[in-house]
Structure to design on (295 residues):
């Protein structure tokens, strides 16, 4: 999926095409890359993990096929060029950078510091996070006004709404840039104020924790909890299938952030979630979580 197989958006046009760098080739990084490439945006996907880099191209190709079969990507645009790299320095020249590494503040801060030293002033830096306050991360950036938060849902090429978080130091130019990027990607931004967990995770993740606790206590099976939440309360997939989709390891990281920063005991990960992480049963990406998955 390099150069010859993926052509840049607006090739031959008068306007310079946006060029995106995505940092992190995990579930969210691959999903966001799929979304961008599928909308004709050239992407440099960076990860220091050799195994993730080796798998990334095939994973993106698979998700592109799936997304197009589902009608989730435009069919009137050529695919954007994809470059897979092991170096943050390859973000130089990007018009926007999306950081999508592990949901641990120290790791995100390190990556943000590295990339902000590489890109030109005026390049919007986007931290894709489910729970960590943006102003906390902004202190790691060379230019805090250029950092914006987003919370893309998984899979990002299917879910059109994106939670956008404006930190206390986020500038208007950065907000304009992220809105423009999301418009190119045909996403609908909803802007919220900065806080631990923002809106979606602050509401959803404690609910999933409670659902897991109900299973832990033997009140109901995971299947029954999800059936009741779907049939009685209109939850699209059920909280425990959602946990498997998020990744139970990511969910636990997010709950820990919420618990540490809010003191809300309802955000302290229950024993069943912790047991599943220790066992490696972390959801769809591992083949087993609350449910089992093939392929």
């Amino acid at each position: 999926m390099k150069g010859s197989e993926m052509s840049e958006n607006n090739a031959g046009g008068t306007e310079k095409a946006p060029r995106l760098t995505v940092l992190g080739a995990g579930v969210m990084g691959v999903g966001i890359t799929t979304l961008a490439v599928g909308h004709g945006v050239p992407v440099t996907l960076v990860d220091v993990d050799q195994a993730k880099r080796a798998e990334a191209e095939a994973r993106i190709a698979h998700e592109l096929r799936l997304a197009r079969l589902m009608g989730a990507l435009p069919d009137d645009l050529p695919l954007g060029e994809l470059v897979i790299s092991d170096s943050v320095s390859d973000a130089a020249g990007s018009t926007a950078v999306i950081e999508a590494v592990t949901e641990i503040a120290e790791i995100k801060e390190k990556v943000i510091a590295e990339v902000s030293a590489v890109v030109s002033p005026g390049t919007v830096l986007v931290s894709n996070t489910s729970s960590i306050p943006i102003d906390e991360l902004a202190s790691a950036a060379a230019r805090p006004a250029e950092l914006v938060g987003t919370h893309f849902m998984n899979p990002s090429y299917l879910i059109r709404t994106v939670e956008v978080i404006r930190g206390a130091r986020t500038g208007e130019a950065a907000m304009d840039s992220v809105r423009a990027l999301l418009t190119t990607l045909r996403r609908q931004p909803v802007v919220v104020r900065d806080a631990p967990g923002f809106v979606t995770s602050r509401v959803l993740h404690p609910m999933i924790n409670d659902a897991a606790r109900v299973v832990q206590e033997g009140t109901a099976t995971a299947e029954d909890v999800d059936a009741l939440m779907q049939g009685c309360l209109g939850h699209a997939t059920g909280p425990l299938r959602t946990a498997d989709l998020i990744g139970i390891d990511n969910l636990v990281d997010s709950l820990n952030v919420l618990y540490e920063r809010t003191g809300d005991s309802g955000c302290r990960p229950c024993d069943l979630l912790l047991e599943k992480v220790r066992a490696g049963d972390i959801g769809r990406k591992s083949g087993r979580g609350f449910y089992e998955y093939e392929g």
Notes: The CA atoms of residues 41 and 147 lie 21 Å apart.
